[in-house]
Write a sequence for this structure.
């Protein structure tokens, strides 16, 4: 059962953004969210539920990883459903994933706020993630590899009173590949995802449209299961590959300086198998953050098969 539950949300990984006080607000995907999951393998046929929680009191860091007065406390709850219908395609096991994150955020210390009450905090639904195709192949020597394609819908809550909004308000496509090695209680995992972010209306008098640069995220973990307990370490690297770009009302396009987010973190993982349910917790120590928010991150994950 431990092996079955550890493969839940293997590749689709659930996926919310990390917060930044920029025009796009969030990175499309929350880095580190699949840490400790088997990224190259889907579970056996069935329906699985996972609930992730994330809390981080963060600072906004400028170029050169310099701290700024801006603070942002973020709490995210992510209910996820994964359906494995028992179908095979091109020799691979097939799965579908849907995630609907909920966020609660508070900003202080210099964020630019608009009119209305309770300006520095708010909550609401984040953009929905649909992963219509996860394909997983089993390879020799206990290796597994999986591919995925996810789509982010711009359907999150829109509260214009808040400095940091729950929805990015743009479409995004997220291909990814996961690799796992599973042997004698060991699980070594790597998940690589790439977010292609589409341009959105900027709702600004200064420019017409805003485009967030594409983002690459690598998430990794190595764990060992001993009886009902699992211990290990994991982390991630987030790199924005292009500058954000705005389109003026005159049609001119401009790339914004100091808009490429970078973030690196690492920390321990612990889990316990209660039988049909597995509870996991992990922690991230911020190593380096630039043009983004960073700080200590506290995670929990509850995995339940139906």
């Amino acid at each position: 059962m431990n092996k079955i539950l550890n493969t839940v949300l293997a590749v689709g990984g659930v996926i919310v953004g990390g917060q930044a006080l920029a025009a796009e607000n969030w990175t499309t995907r929350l880095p580190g969210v699949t840490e400790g999951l088997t990224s190259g393998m889907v579970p056996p046929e069935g329906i699985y539920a996972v609930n992730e929680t994330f809390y981080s009191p963060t600072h906004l860091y400028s170029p050169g990883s310099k701290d700024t007065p801006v603070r942002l406390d973020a709490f995210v709850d992510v209910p996820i459903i994964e359906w494995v219908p028992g179908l095979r395609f091109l020799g691979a096991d097939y799965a579908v994933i849907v995630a609907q994150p909920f966020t609660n955020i508070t900003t202080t210390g210099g964020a630019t706020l608009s009119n209305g009450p309770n300006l520095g905090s708010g909550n609401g639904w984040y953009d929905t993630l649909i992963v219509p195709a996860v394909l997983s192949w089993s390879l020799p020597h206990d290796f597994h590899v999986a591919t995925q394609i996810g789509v982010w819908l711009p359907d999150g809550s829109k509260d214009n009173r808040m400095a940091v909004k729950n929805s990015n308000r743009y479409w995004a496509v997220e291909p990814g590949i996961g690799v796992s090695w599973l042997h004698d209680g060991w699980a070594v995992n790597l998940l690589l995802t790439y977010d292609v972010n589409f341009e959105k209306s900027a709702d600004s008098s200064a420019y017409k449209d805003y485009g967030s640069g594409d983002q690459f995220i690598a998430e990794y973990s190595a764990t060992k299961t001993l009886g009902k307990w699992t211990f290990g370490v994991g982390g991630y690297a987030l790199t924005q590959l292009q500058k954000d770009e705005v389109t003026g009302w005159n049609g001119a396009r401009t790339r914004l300086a100091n808009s490429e987010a970078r973030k690196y973190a690492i920390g321990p993982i612990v889990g316990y198998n209660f039988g049909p349910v597995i509870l996991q917790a992990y922690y991230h120590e911020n190593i380096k953050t630039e043009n983004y928010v960073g700080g200590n991150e506290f995670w929990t994950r509850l995995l339940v098969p139906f």
Summary: The domain at 2-305 is CATH 2.40.160.40 (Porin). Residues 279 and 302 are 5 Å apart (CA to CA). The first strand starts at residue 46 and ends at 62. The two ends are 13 Å apart (CA to CA).
